[in-house]
Amino acid sequence: MEKSQELLNSVQMARFVARGALRLDAVVPAELNAEGLRVLADDVPPVPYGTPLSTAYPEGTFVRRLLELPQVAGALRSLVGPEPSVDHHFVHTREPHGGNAQALHGDAIIDVRPDAFDVQLMYYPQAVTLEMGGTLSVPGSHLRRTNESDTGRYQNLRGQDRLVCPAGTVVFLHHGIWHGGRRNDSDRLRYMFKIRFNPTVRQQRLWDTSDLHDPQVNAELDTMFPWYEGATGRLERYNRILLWRALTGDDGYDLDHWVTRVSNRPKERAV
Amino acid sequence: MTTDSARQQVLVLYLSDSALDSYVVGWAQYDGTGRTTPTTGDSDEPPYDTGLAALRDGWRLFQAAQLIPPYPGHEYDVSFLKHEFFFERIVDTQALPA
After folding, report:
1. Helices of type H across chain A
2. Which of B20, B22, B40, B82 to mutate to probe the A interface, most A CBs <10 Å?
3. Domain that holds residue B15
């Protein structure tokens, strides 16, 4: 898997830390999408939990070539590093005019690791319209400490993302993001292929850090989402700062003094 | 309206702070009449801008989230939405159009 890769830059990483999601529109070429639809219709054989990526999908297979696309490979490496493990994969389908919307949930179980995260790749081989019930996700929900579908009561949140995308779109999600498949009100069967990756190295400065001090990094980390309560939105930024410190190794990083202020406990006696 | 024909509609609003007249950040609806089937991700626009606007439109508040201090050691954690308000409206199904 050491072929051409387009690493993320620091602004993109900061955006991921703030949003819990990274979207790459139409990065998969049309012929690969056509093949992907056929492959997904037949399902993809499972791989054992924890299989190293380099052995999970044989050379030349559809999934292998999907993951070798330079933008996909580069994003994956930037987020979880070289040779992650494949946790599992699954072909999701939403029947036309069938089924219900999934309750808003986080995958697996509550996962509060402060300095590591899994990513879930979601691949959409066909264009997804609003009517087709693309994945619902909630930007900036990934640091919330909630367990699986305990959030099911929340039907809609301001600023939620109801995915509408061109064919060949790939989205990477932080493991904690609140999401769910929406009801498919169209006449078309909708496919989504998901792979969860576990890092096998420390997730620190794995991306192209040449723009680490770009002012846009702070702007991304400072993003408030419309569904945040005002007070809790401040805590979101506090927690993002801690995650950015872990990812950059810069224990002094701060944004508007949020962490520094409440950590200040001087020990020097006054003279 | 008779007991047999009365049905409850429930509106849940999540507000930006603990005041009922603060801004709506999230919402959910459940319809005991069965005439509508609100569900996850079905709208990007809230039914009301504030909790007070729902009152003015006839919804009756029947539950509000308590204000609970953070557990020691978890003051900076983020989790569920804090400011949850439940409203109801009782509908006479016999009076609804067929």
Report:
1. 10-19, 30-41, 53-56, 62-68, 70-80, 215-221, 230-248, 258-263
2. B40
3. 6-93
